[in-house]
Amino acid sequence: MFNLKTMIATAAIAVAAAGNFATPALASQCAKPGMNALANAPMMPRGVTDTVIGSINLAPEIGVDGRQLRTRRLVVQPGGIVPLHSHKDRPALIYTVSGSITEYSSACGAPIQHKAGDISREADGLSHYWVNHGKVPAVLLSSDVFHGM
User: Fold this and answer.
1) Which among 8, 96, 106, 119 has most CB atoms closer than 10 A?
2) What angle do CA 130, 39, 116 make, to 5 degrees?
3) What confidence category does residue 69 fall into, taking pLDDT thresholds of 50, 70 and 90?
4) What residue range is the signal peptide (predicted)?
5) Comparing 29-43, 48-62, 73-87, which segment has the lowest mean pLDDT?
6) Dist CA 136 CA 138 (whole Å)
7) Which pLDDT does position 2 carry in this prediction?
8) Of 63, 79, 72, which Cα lies nearest the Cα of 97?
């Protein structure tokens, strides 16, 4: 799965990257709060590479059976799509490392633009999808509590 050196290196990179930003912007704060039915939302991924870079079984750590804390690296190519999905019972934080990406959220009446240095909070049953309308790949780090054991 992964070894201690990989975990330490990943943590060091995350800390170093975070140190480049005094306070990450909470890009998930919607400028136009409201319900969005997400009609015609894409259901299939396109142009996305999703790599698990680390995970921890939460049962022995904090007694949460069947759950793991995982971190993934997603690279969304120009025109790429992370399809419609829900965060009901699966909270997550998404950090935009580079590029930019647009989020279409069930809790926002307007698209949300995420740029490098932004962090997005995904919880409370939120449903959404992401599209890279830019000309360069968007690189994201996603940490979530996942049903996976």
Assistant:
1) 96
2) 15
3) very high
4) 1-27
5) 29-43
6) 6
7) 45
8) 72
DSSP 126: -
CATH number reported for the structural domain that contains residue 110 in this entry: 2.60.120.10
The contacts of residue 24 (CB under 8 Å, 6+ apart) are 18, 95, 117, 118, 119
pTM for the whole structure: 0.79
Q: For residues 149 and 147, give the distance between their C-alpha atoms in angstroms, rounded to a whole number.
A: 6
> What is the tally of structural domains in the chain?
1
Residue 135 has pLDDT above 90, yes or no: yes
Q: How far is CA 121 from CA 75, 88, 99, 124, in A?
A: 19, 13, 18, 10
Per-residue pLDDT, averaged over 115-132, amounts to: 93
Closest by alpha carbon to 127, among 100, 101, 92?
A: 92
Instruction: Name the residue range of residue 89's domain.
Output: 4-147
Q: How confident is the model at residue 149 (pLDDT cuts 50, 70, 90)?
A: low
- Residue 78 has a pLDDT of 98
